[in-house]
Amino acid sequence: MTDPLIRDISDTARWVAVYRARESEREDAVFHDPFARALAGERGERIASAVKLGEDNAWSFIARTYLFDRFVTRLVTHGADMVVNLAAGLDTRPYRMELPASLRWVEVDLPDILDYKEEILADAKPVCELERVRLDLSNEDGRRGLFADLGRRAKHVVVISEGLVIYLMPESVGALARDLAGPPTFQHWALDLASPGLLEMMKRSAGSAVSEAGAPFLFAPAEGPPFFTAHGWQPVEVRSLLKTAAKLGRLSIAMRVLAMLPESHGAQGRRPWSAVCLLQKT
Questions:
Q1: Domain definitions of the chain by residue range
Q2: What is the value of pTM for the model shown?
Q3: N or C: fewer beta carbons within 10 Å in the chain?
Q4: CA 113, CA 119: separation in Å to the nearest integer?
Q5: How far apart (Å, rounded) are the C-alpha atoms in residues 20 and 65?
Q6: Is 58-281 a domain of CATH 1.10.3720.10?
């Protein structure tokens, strides 16, 4: 028997790293991740070549990475002293971004993926204080204890969760949001969000591969970013991936036409829509 294309959720991190590598190798790259190619590895390339969703929508991964970079830079510039990266996967921001040496960066993810990353990055040096926590975020007691501890160690915590909530049930996202709202110093949260319409498209395009790996696409709230207001967080900025990719020059002509259409920051319904949202605790 041969391994499935995507064995588990950790392989999705290898898949997305391919698009960071390809962007970084462009002359007009909007970010540079010198570690992405090694982290993606041969398996990441195989997944990227086989899953049509990624090949057709590479612009969305580029725009998403770019927007998270921008939010992190802005919030750190304005006084954030700790970044907590949930489901950090193969993210390399504490190595590749210009960050103050005093910034504390905490990566939280499953042991296997963090072990793999540490092996690949063994000779690399982070630009800030980096800590890795091996934790299954579905362990509610474990994550609450971690959040409380981190909250006591900082004055202004920014949480980022790139590519996480789409794999969770709505009730699990709500519970995570409430837990993150608990520590007083947890003040901002950046996450990416999809519409119900986009979720259905993703399921048709790549759903079988990720479902067989135990990581089906699940979360796309009908109300859009306002979903989080009932759980202690207020959306303060919503940046469309499509419109961002258009500004970065990463869209085909047909997609550039779509990017000109107006949009709201609330319910998106069956419209294929995705964004990076910055939330502030209420």
A1: 58-281
A2: 0.94
A3: N
A4: 10
A5: 8
A6: no
By the 8 A CB rule, do 97 and 72 touch?
Answer: yes
Its sign, for the CA torsion 55, 56, 61, 63, is positive
Q: What digits encode the pLDDT tens for the residues 4-35?
A: 778 888 888 999 999 999 999 999 999 999 99
Residue 75 vs residues 1, 65, 79, 85, 217: alpha-carbon distances, Å: 48, 16, 6, 14, 29
Q: Are 100 and 81 in contact (CB under 8 A)?
A: no
Which is it for the CA torsion 37, 118, 166, 82, positive or negative?
Answer: negative
Q: How many CB atoms lie within 10 A of CB 181?
A: 19
Nearest Cα residue to 162 out of 22, 67, 24, 244 = 67
| 101 exposure class (CB count in 10 Å sphere: 0-12, 13-18, 19+) | exposed
What DSSP state is assigned to residue 256?
H
Tokens describing residue 216: 């089906």
Q: What's the CA gap between 117 and 10, in Å, rounded?
A: 11
Query: In which residue are the tokens 């926590």 written?
Result: 133
- The span from the CA of 50 to the CA of 281, in Å, is 40
Outline where the chain has alpha helix (H): 9-24, 36-50, 52-56, 58-77, 93-96, 111-120, 140-152, 170-181, 196-212, 241-247, 253-259
Nearest to 221 by CA among 162, 174, 161, 179: 174
In whole angstroms, what is the distance from residue 93 CA to residue 90 CA?
9
